[in-house]
Amino acid sequence: MAAIVADRLSKTFSTRVRPAGRLSALRSFLRPENRDVEAVKGVSFEVGEGEVVAFLGPNGAGKSTTIKMLMGILRPSGGSASVLGLDPVRDRLELSRCVGAVFGQKSQLWFHLPPSDSFRLLGAIYEIDDDDRKWREAELIERFGLAPFWDVPVRKLSLGERIRCEIAASLLPAPLVLFLDEPTIGLDVVAKREIRQLLADAARIDDTTVFMTSHDMGDIEKVCKRAIIIHHGEVVVDETMKDLRHRALSKKYVGVRYASPVNLDLPSLSPVKRTAVAASYEVDTREHSLAEVVRALAAKGELEDITVEDEPLENVIAGIYSARTGAEAQAFGTGLPGAGRAAPEALGA
Amino acid sequence: MRSGSLRTYSIAASTSMRERLAYPGNFAGSMFTYALFVFIFSRVWAGAYAGATEIAGYTMRMAVWYFIIAEIPSFGFGRFFWTLSRDMKSGQVAYLLARPYDFVSYNYAEKLGGSLAEAGVILAEGIAVGLLLVGLPPAAAPGAAGLASALSEAGRLGFLVVSLLLAGTLNYFLQAALAMTAFWPEENEAFFWIFQKLTLVVGTLIPIEFLPRWAARLAVWTPFPYLSYAPARIAVAFSLPEALSLVARQSLWIFAAVFLARAVFSFGSRRLSVNGG
Question: Which residue does chain A place closest to B22, by CA atoms?
């Protein structure tokens, strides 16, 4: 059964347009003019129970608006949504008992009080009886390592500690679906790694369906199994992380360092960076055989070092984000028309 | 489907109160301003009462104590509009809505809980300042002695506390209704500005008996006297029938304000438009 279903879901906001020129404020007051902005344009997708899905898109793509519609906070302008078989708007209260949410830029913890007080209140809000709450708290304190700051006011916690508390708090009522909106924003590398591991564990241990937005590729690669990319209010990519990574496999970065200076140019491939003895090449494997490139470079002189790296996933996502149309975004990195990458060609030695 | 229990709301109120009490220094600004206002008004009344023992049935001591009590709701319960407006304009309200509770009831419990801490501190300060400036307030039952006097004083105290709580509740629901108009025009501060000024004029700065007779007659049909006049009147001119009448009228206005706030929320929340993350 699908945990989340969006069927041609759309949201249009009406915003006030201020006319230009003199007395614009007065004219706007007397004759207000509104403009409709389509934040989400008929997105459709399904997320299965227990799936961990990244919901991606550039700023303003409609990610948060979609999450708010799925949580019943916003009424869709068109289409329909279903979460755990419930209508998010009609059954908002019932749904709110089964879903958790973490918004990296908002807090559900009381700033001047220790996390223990916020957990007690959340327990009351979700009507968890005291014994169950204490048992669940003990488990979350252990799993998230909250014991050292359980009784310290939230204002005195580091951002990493606070986010650990936020995620643990969202798991207190054992939600079936967890919405995460940029959960690692602002965290350092170590804290991010910890949070990603905790999220992956939470999804695995509790079998929670996780629907996560993030601009951090590390979050997506470490935690999610599938990516839905939304752009200009439309779903442009919906595929497994494995397939998404395949888009990156067609491009390799080859780095070489020679014992002495050599001619670093190849007949149809120039280095993207070079010094007298070292260079790096961006190789599209559909245009050039990687083996031929390596052979050609090895034949140039005495090699001290050679490295071959995949294109970072971030570049693929950036390419999809920078596409001007949905079709262009869908085609990016696939070799399909509009992808901007030609068929392989031989590399002359 | 149940939406929050009394236990939920009482824990929300107590958590909010503890959050406010975590920093007693937070009250310093209000306490200083309140003491300054009381002192200035006591001097104003000293001038007004020069050569007069009574104005509209109030002695100078009654007028000073009236002001001390009437200002407590302004200082203790005067910021509901701003806190709720801030939540709405920042988009925080969207996240508060995604919880299994009745939003209006929960918000009332949370906001009132926090404000009771401040109102309690201001009340204690007001009693101390009043005793220093003009001595004890007029007796609840002049001429009574012994048990009768003690019962009257206890009755007045009980009605005063109830009336202050009702004033806080009425303040919350009226201010919440005004704040939630931000579901339509976001800039709704003008409504609150008018509300604040009417509250000040009708029963806070001066008792409504000081107003022209036609204005006083009109005022009792508005909610404003029940925000500050009711508890202050009970404190300085206690009589059981009048106290019962004032508390009953406060309760009626609360019913109307709850209905209004719920209606505004019900229609407004459908229009919620929180764009962006």
Answer: A112
Distance CA A256, CA A298 (A): 9
- pLDDT tens, position by position, for chain B (277 residues)? 445 688 999 999 999 999 999 887 888 999 999 999 999 999 999 999 998 889 999 999 999 999 999 999 999 988 899 988 888 877 778 778 888 999 999 999 999 999 999 999 999 999 999 999 999 888 767 777 788 778 888 999 999 999 999 999 999 999 999 999 888 776 788 899 999 999 999 999 999 999 999 999 999 999 999 999 999 999 999 999 999 999 999 999 999 999 999 999 988 887 776 555 4
Where exactly are the structural domains of chain B? 6-274
Quickly count: other Cβ atoms within 10 Å of residue A81's Cβ. 21
Q: Where on the phi/psi map is residue A337: left (φ > 0), alpha (ψ -120 to 50), or beta?
A: beta
| B96 CB within 8 Å of a chain A CB | no
Q: Is B53 helix (H, G, I), strand (E, B) or coil?
A: coil
Which chain B residues touch A92 with a CB distance below 8 Å?
Answer: 97-98
Distance CA A53, CA A63 (A): 13
Q: CA dihedral defined by B178, B182, B184, B185, rounded to 10 degrees?
A: 100
Cβ pair A120:B11 closer than 8 A: yes
What is this model's ipTM? 0.86
DSSP string over B10-27: HHHHHHHHHHHHT-GGGG
CA angle A177, A128, B102 (to 5 degrees): 75
Interface test with B, best of A10, A28, A106, A107 (most B CBs within 10 A): A106
Task: Give which of A92, A98, A105, A130 to mutate to test B binding, by max B Cβ within 10 Å.
Answer: A92
Q: Which residue has the tokens 């965290």?
A: A187
